Amino acid sequence: MEHNVKISWAGDMSFEADIYGHKVIMDASDEAGGKGRGPRPKPLSLASLGGCTGMDVVSILDKMKAKPESFTLSVTAELSDDYPKIYKKIHIIYLLKGKNLSLDKVMKAVSLSQEKYCGVSAMLRKAAEISYEIKIEE
């Protein structure tokens, strides 16, 4: 399978990505010569990480008959000054709500996602230490 993303310059410091027909504007802040109309590429990598691992965890828990009622992730990263590293540390908080959720099942799903399935995590792990915590509410 091939992924194909088209990136077009949109003037100033902004670029538009066409990802399977979905448009995403990436732009620098006013201070950096942009208009601040969209996210910068580095935070988009964190959004990709959250989406990738989030989809994995939901899918794995569904197979365990423990699908959450709701699920949010928070991804925080500390920028690195050590080029070409992007981040020093990345921390993910998984917040799940549901009655059939056990810490063991959620930990297994998160571990499988982080260590085996989420390709974005594999890429970013080469550039930063990734840690996570799990919070479960009924």
Would you mind describing this structure in some detail?
With 138 residues, this protein is of the alpha+beta class. 33% of the residues lie in helices and 33% in strands. It has three helices and six strands; from the N terminus they run E-E-E-H-E-E-H-H-E. The protein has helices spanning 41-63, 103-117, 119-125, and strands at residues 5-9, 15-19, 22-26, 70-79, 87-97, 129-137. It has a three-stranded antiparallel β-sheet with strand order 1-2-3, with no helix packed on it. A three-stranded mixed β-sheet has the order 4-5-6, with helices on one face. The longest helix has 23 residues, at 41-63.
Topology:
Blueprint: E1 5-9, E2 15-19, E3 22-26, H1 41-63, E4 70-79, E5 87-97, H2 103-117, H3 119-125, E6 129-137
Parallel strand pairs: 5-6
Antiparallel strand pairs: 1-2, 2-3, 4-5
Key words describing this protein structure:
three-stranded mixed beta sheet; three-stranded antiparallel beta sheet; about 140 residues; alpha+beta
Quick recap:
With 138 residues, the protein is an alpha+beta fold. It has three helices and six strands, in the order βββαββααβ. The longest helix has 23 residues.
